[in-house]
Each structure stands twice: as C-alpha cells, then as structure tokens.
Amino acid sequence: MSEPTKYLLDEGRLPKAWYNIQADLPQPLPATLHPGTLQPIGPDDLAPLFPMELIAQEVSTERDIEIPEPVREIYRLWRPAPLYRAHRLERALQTPAKIFYKYEGVSPAGSHKPNTAVPQAFYNAAAGVRRLTTETGAGQWGTSLSFAGGLFGLEVLVFQVRVSYDQKPYRRAVMETYGARCVASPSTETAYGRSVLAQRPDHPGSLGIAISEAVELAAQRADTKYALGSVLNHVLMHQTVIGLEAMEQMAMADTWPDVIVGCVGGGSNFAGIAFPFIGQALRGGTRARVVAVEPAACPTLTRGRYAYDFGDTGHMTPLTKMHTLGSTFTPPGFHAGGLRYHGMAPLVSHLKELGMLEAVAYTQGECFAAGVQFARAEGIVPAPEANHAVKGAIEEALRCKREGRAETILFNLSGHGHFDMAAYQQYFAGALTDEAYDEGELAASLSSLPRIPAEA
Amino acid sequence: MSEPTKYLLDEGRLPKAWYNIQADLPQPLPATLHPGTLQPIGPDDLAPLFPMELIAQEVSTERDIEIPEPVREIYRLWRPAPLYRAHRLERALQTPAKIFYKYEGVSPAGSHKPNTAVPQAFYNAAAGVRRLTTETGAGQWGTSLSFAGGLFGLEVLVFQVRVSYDQKPYRRAVMETYGARCVASPSTETAYGRSVLAQRPDHPGSLGIAISEAVELAAQRADTKYALGSVLNHVLMHQTVIGLEAMEQMAMADTWPDVIVGCVGGGSNFAGIAFPFIGQALRGGTRARVVAVEPAACPTLTRGRYAYDFGDTGHMTPLTKMHTLGSTFTPPGFHAGGLRYHGMAPLVSHLKELGMLEAVAYTQGECFAAGVQFARAEGIVPAPEANHAVKGAIEEALRCKREGRAETILFNLSGHGHFDMAAYQQYFAGALTDEAYDEGELAASLSSLPRIPAEA
Q: Exposure of B400 by Cβ count < 10 A (0-12 exposed, 13-18 middle, 19+ buried)?
C-alpha cells in the first residue's frame, strides 16, 4: 500500500488547550498604547469592547490555555481537520519535496475563522453579552461569527465592506442562514459611517472603516461587544489548534516540516499553523523555516514599517506596534479580500523582528495560476487568500527540485473558494489585473503615522 | 466523555468493492428495450455511448464489483466520508430519536456525484476514449465529471440546462477551473438543440433536452462517449460506497438504523445510502424502513406511473421500465435542480414495486425551512436537494417524539449548498413559491407514454 493521502485524528485527540506563544517570547511584546494618553492601556480600557476572559487571554503569558468543553463540543463538528499529503501536486511539479497541507475549509463557514469565532461567542455569552458587532471583508469572518453567535444565542450584526457586499451577495445569504444581520459599510447606522458617506456617498468601504463602525456601536451599548477576526493576540492563539493538530499528524506521517508556509493578511491563519512550531524552536527544539506569503498589492510585512499605528481608519482603536502601511492606506481592490488590511498582527510583526520568520509577496495573477494548478491536481478549489499559501508552497517545492532536496513542506490551506468563483471567472476571462498600489499614497500614509514620544 | 459527534474511517477501510444489488433481487429488472424494435437491447446497442466495462456493470449480477486501485486512489482525496451524529439537531427537536447523517459534501465537487464520475472517467480513459459529453442541471454532476475527467486527461463537454447556466454562473466557473467546457442547453452545437431553439429561441432548457444533446454528440464521434450522473444501474452501484461505509460507521456507533432517509431525483444518492441496507434485508438480514423523499413539484414515485419510457425528451435513449411522469413533462422551475427529472432509476422503481421502500413528497418551502433549521443546529448549509432528506429525517424524528420511540434514523446529506445561496436568499426574502405542476400537463404527458405490445 502506498503512503496515505490524508491523516485524520479522532475527535478524542482534539487539543485540550490552545498554545500561547507569549509564554515563550525571548522579549515581550511592546505595550499597547491608549490613543489619547499614549500610555500603556490596562484591562479597563478594553472592557467596553471585550469580555474580561478574552482581555485576560490577550495579555496572558501562560503557555497552555484550556479550551472550554462547550467550545470543544462545537469544534468537533469539523475538527480535528485533515492533514493531506499532496501526492498529485508533487507529481505534477516533479519535485522531490513532500508537500503536506492542513485543510481548514472543512469548517461550516469554509475557513479557519470559526476556530476563534466559537470561543469568542462562548466567552461573550458567558459574560452576559446579548449582541456582537463585527466587520467582514471577503465575508469569511462575518460568516464564522454569524455561525458561532447563533450557536450561543447571540445577536450578530456584521458590517460588510461595501464592495464585497455588492460583489458577493451569497456570503450575505449564508450569514442570514445562520440568523445574523448584515449591512453594507460605510452605513448610516453609525456616526462614523454617516461622516464617511457625507464625504463620498459611493465610498467602496474598507476593513478599517468597517472596524470603526463595529467598534462605535459596541462602545455605545452595555449589552453589545465587539469581535475581531484576526490581529489580536487571543485571536491568533485560538487558531493554534491548527498547528497543534498538524504536529500530531506530521508525527503520524513520520516526518517533520523543513518549511512551513501560510498566507498573511491580519495574520491569524498563519499564526495558527506556525506558532506551535515557532514555539518549539523558541524553546530550543527543532527549527523550521517559516514563510509568510502576502499579496504584492498590500505588502505589509515586505514594504510596511514596524511602528505604532491604529488598527482602524477612524482612529478609535488603541495603538499597537506592528508592520503597517499606515491606517490611511487603501489597498487596490484585488480579490483576496481577507488579506486587504493595512496592518499585521503585533505577534507576527514581533516574531518577524526577532528573525523567526521570512516574508514574501506575490501578485494575484501568480496566485490564481497556482490555485488552478492545485485544484486540477488535488480537487479542492482554494479561496483567493489561500492561493497565496499555495503559491508559496509551490515555489518552495520548485526550489527543492532545482536544489535536488527532498524537503518536507507544510502549508495551511485556510479555506475553499466556493464563494469566490467570480474571481476565478475573471481570471479565466483574462480580466484579472495585478493592481499595484500607489507609491505616493503609501509614502504619504507612512509619513502620517502617529508620533509616539517614547519611540523618538 | 459524551458520545462522539462524528465517526471517521481510516482510508485503509475504504471499501474495496461496490455492492451490486442486482445480485440479490428476488425478481430481475425488466429488460431495457430498443426504442425502434421494442426488443431487449444488447451490449452492442450501448457501445456507441459507453465503454464495455460500464456496459458489463450495467447488467452484471455479481454481488461485489472490485473498485480499481486508480479509482480508490482518487476516492482517498475525500473518502471515507464522515458519519455525523446530529446531537444539536436532536436537542433542537427534543426528540428521543438518534439522528445520524452521512456527509457527502466533503468531496471536491461538494456532493456524492464524484463517487461515480471518477470510475466513469477511469473506465472511459482505459478504453481509449478522448472526450466525454454530459448534461447538468444544478451543476453538481457537471462539476463532478469535469473534476474526474481532468484527472484522467479527458476533455469534458457539459451541456448545462439554460436556466441553471444563467442563474448559477459560479458553477460554470468551477467546471472551467477543472478544465472543462460548459455550454448552455438548448445549444446550437447539436441538431436537436437547434431544433428546440428554432421552435422557442428563449427555451429555458430541461435535463431531458440536455441529455439528448450530449447523447447526440457522443453517438456521432468514435473518440467521444457519454456519461450519465444518475438513473443507470452502474451509476447507482458506484454510489454504494456511501452505504457500505455507513454500515461500518453505524457499527462503530454501536447502533443500527431503524429508518433510512434519502432524497430522490434520478435516484443515485438515495441508492448509495440505501442499497447496501436493502440488500441485507433481501438476503434475510435486518430490515430497516427506507424512505425516499421527492419534491412535490416533481413527484415521480408518488404520482408517476410505473411504465416503459424514454430517459430523454428527444427520444434517443432506450426504453426502461421506471416510475415516470412522462418524458414530455416539464417540472416547474424550483430550486432543487438535481431532483427535476421526469423519471426514476429503474432499480429504485423496481424496489418500490417490490415493497422495499416508501416514498413521500414535500414542497420546497417546507424543505428550505428544514434546511435552515439544520444549518443553525449543525453548521452545514445543505444543498436544496439535500434539504429534502433533512426534511424527511426531521419528520421521522418528530414522529418518534410523538410516539415516544428512541429509533435510530440515518440520512444521507448528499451535498452542501455553497453554490445555491441565491435560493436561500429568495427563501429569506419570502420570494420562494411552492410552484405546482400542471395537472392537465401531467395527464397529457402520462397518456402519451410509448405503447409496448408486451405490456398490453
């Protein structure tokens, strides 16, 4: 019998705890600052937006944070997720490398996002919260929070970036199926949304604007809190179930990754696959190369500055130190909506500065070509975001071929593309452009980063 | 620890043979007749359309037909498929019944259809065929054959029913991702298509017309054959991997179904889950109730006649004895396109006559309500076709509640609804009508069934 195609874990082997990489950092994360005082914030500053349990996770330095049983019960609807050996892709590439991919598209929402949506909904419901607000770009996160909120009896209000709202009505239908309400952002439901619309009635929206709207509503009502799908420490930590399972599955396959590849937007799926492996290296264990793949049109890690910045466009969030293109930067309208964010998770940024990971950027045309090659070999049609990870993995496999090295490559296939077929249609029609950002706009955006006295 | 949510089989436990129910029939299937001579057809009559291996399977009475290793290799991309215990749905219904569902949406195409598309592509490629033609309604079958054909280097040409082609452009994009060509039917590529368009240029198409077009092209070219996604004996047999796996998984769950539920259009997913269990009963083993759920707008088993009829509208196919609404019957345009067929698989029809299964019909509104209830409890958004099975299972669970019986219900969740969200959108907007067929048209269609002297 040939080597297996997939490695499945019994649900009894679902991780019992998330891995918190803050326990293993050689230097702690730079403090998060209050946007008014520029002083480090405390738990009380975040309390209007998040339940105390999540705020505690945000700053915890405990290595293992127990996954509550009601969360594990829901994880079992799709977890542990399968690890695949990409036999057919390897043959198509004629590479001596072994390519493995962890597939997160098996979740009800079709991506890794429910891994954090479910615990976020759980902790909010446990704290007596009645309603959650959030933003969504491509729709993956909004779908996931709609699903998770419904399971815990929470009302969910999703601000969907206008351009996605119009392009992807089916994503909205999924959110409604799960019982959520979804409005286009900028909207008339918030003061900030109204101010944006007053300046430009046909504004296409951005993640930064949608975040401002969701935060504004949550800050106003005691029964309402806000949920973020990426960037924050606790969100990245929830995603580590991906890498923890992959470690068990790599052991089943009797090998260990030489290279780990993930796509990065805010950083959560990348952290999910990579942090458990990086943590092992930080503790003196085996070290793999770790490659973060980002879109050339929004190159936060490869072209951004490591500096304090706002998470949103309306400047309502605290300031965090991260790789950023500047909070006023508006990336061109390419299809990997989930990667269209001006900033990068502080933890990912910090680890980049510590030399624990590399970053590379590809155009969307290159990434779609990789995605189609993958689909024809392996069957699964990846989401445009995941195509970046596929492209990164294929490049590593081709390098192995050139170098004659039989390395083991592990990448995270963070979601399927079933709701993104309009983008594939454009790709086949030759209508997909590799839109470049405006260098002048980037320079202006970077030059208007907030000035932090302590940084001077 | 509570009872598991899902039962996974290792890929080493993928079935090694399909189950052929023809081995266990107390009376053989009525012969298939040549439409011209009205005499039983032989293998040579089918040779222009199908490779000899599939023709042999069509009439075989061997119980176990070995699954070729290249087919099993591809099955392993998603099989064995998971069996779920619907804990949350049971709680929502407050039923004493145990509800299990086999989930076929994990395949690359998102439904059970690749179970037969892969072996059909394999046997055609092995016979030297270069090109396959087929029809598709909702797009599930066209997607599956595109996927399978691509893996074996075959060109695939899909005739998609015009109304679906226009409503679901994303399905077409998936077919193109797998490398297939997809045209709207009726088309100008065939004489039959042109004749239909000449009568009615804006004809919305039907499965029967699309079959005629695909068959016409295949019959004309020696390097081209035809592939059908349901109805035929060999197609139903390929689907029995569903039920064979489910039997192992029910044993893992330490229970056995009292009731088995599936939705029926042509009959293939239903046969897949049910035939291995029915076969056990035919051999004198445990007998479960078996319930086929069909749409009220196309009630083949509950309102059709058991008679010889054509499989297509252009009357190019042989005559088979089956439950039929008449080959000229055009069902109203409801959303479960995969169930919109005038006939029923001869094997399913025969087993109905033998008293081995029951049939029930529901409106699409009832079925969407059931699908939404399911999605909110279990996470997965079912395809409109699969909603019929969900509705059937929920009705059985509610019966158990009324009767205070803790029965075990098994149903087949044949596919996800990711490409059908426009239908859910209409459902939420209250714009979904329960279109009824025209009783006069049904009577006319039934009265024009072909006359078979031997049946008189």
A: buried
